Amino acid sequence: MPRYIMTHRSKDLKRSVLVVSYHLMMEMKTHKEYKLNDMYQYLKNKLKIQQKDFVYTLNFLYILGKLEYIKAEDTIRLSK
Predict the structure, then answer these.
(1) Which residues contact 8 (CB under 8 A, 6 or more apart)?
(2) Cβ(21)–Cβ(73) under 8 Å?
(3) Which helix (H) or strand (E) holds 68?
């Protein structure tokens, strides 16, 4: 199992991949597309996450088929 999904007793649960994924998905439901940097700044301010937590979350949701990445615009959106 990848180490970024497993939690550790010293890690703040607000920064876990599942919690960050939940907040990202809820925000994506209100805005159809988001610039990557804008979403990172939103989650960073709300949850005090680090960039690696954001990247782990993007990877997790992309692997599950929940997010699409539009390279030309550097945006993400929910998969249909």
Answers:
(1) none
(2) no
(3) strand 67-70
What token pair was written down for 25?
């998905």
| Per-residue tokens: 13 | 């649960």
Question: Which has the closest alpha carbon to 43: 67, 61, 12, 19?
Answer: 19
How many Å apart are CA 55 and CA 39, to the nearest integer? 11
Q: What is the pTM of this model?
A: 0.82
Q: Phi-psi category of 54—alpha, beta or left, where left has phi over 0 and alpha has psi -120 to 50?
A: alpha
Q: What is the pLDDT of residues 18-64, one digit of tens each?
A: 899 999 999 999 988 999 999 999 999 999 999 999 999 999 999 99
